[in-house]
Amino acid sequence: MAIIGYARVSSAGQSLDVQLEKLKAAGADEVFAEKRSGTTTDAREELKAALRFARRGDVLVVTRMDRLARSVADLASIVADLTKREVGFRVLDQAAVDTTTANGRLMLNMLAAFAEFETDLRKDRQREGIEKAKANGVYKGRPAKLPADRVAELRAQGMGATEIAKKLGMGRASVYRLLSAS
What is the CATH number of domain 3-118? Predict the structure, then answer.
């Protein structure tokens, strides 16, 4: 039986050190770590590698549940796959979560629901803040990478939107937005 550690932080500026120390102290034989958002499992190559590495009888360990997944659906999918392959799942900071026991599986589902709820609340607060800032004329979105006049200049030279997009290394839809704004 191997203990497989998985650590994740959301951004490059954050440190994995605390998680890595806890996983090693828990006896992790192999540790996979990455700096990626937890809101989706897409592009999380180290998570995919950890899941591929896990064999029957192994236990996947994380320090906190939200390090593995931020949605109930993603968490349920990952845990269902582990369970099907007879791989356990344990959360160090939430010791009651241990899928090798019935109580642990119950706690997993309850805590997953709270984690998803927390993410939804955060998104709602962010959306409310943006709407308020827009109403006050403070928030105008992310500024364009290139000024609209450069796009208009290329258009005046007879270039089409696709050609402008390729030349400037941007999406065609962005070209159309800049053209319509000028």
Answer: 3.40.50.1390
Per-residue tokens: 31: 């540790």
The domain spans of the chain are 3-118, 148-181
Active site residues: 10
The two three-digit tokens of residue 76, written as one number: 């349920």
Beta-sheet strand order (sheet of 3-9): 30-35, 3-9, 59-62, 88-91
What are the tokens at 79? 């845990």
Place of tokens 């950890």: 50
Local confidence pLDDT in tens for the 182 residues of the chain: 899 999 999 888 899 999 999 999 999 999 999 998 877 788 899 999 999 999 999 999 999 988 998 777 888 899 899 999 999 999 998 776 777 778 888 887 887 788 778 888 989 999 998 889 888 888 877 765 666 778 888 888 998 889 988 888 888 888 888 888 76
How does DSSP classify residue 47? H
Count, in order, helices (H) and strands (E) of the chain. Answer: 8, 4
Using DSSP's 3-state secondary structure scheme, residue 171 falls into coil
Distance CA 1, CA 60 (A): 11
Helix (H) or strand (E) holding 150: helix 148-156
Return the amino acid letter for 116: E
pTM: 0.60
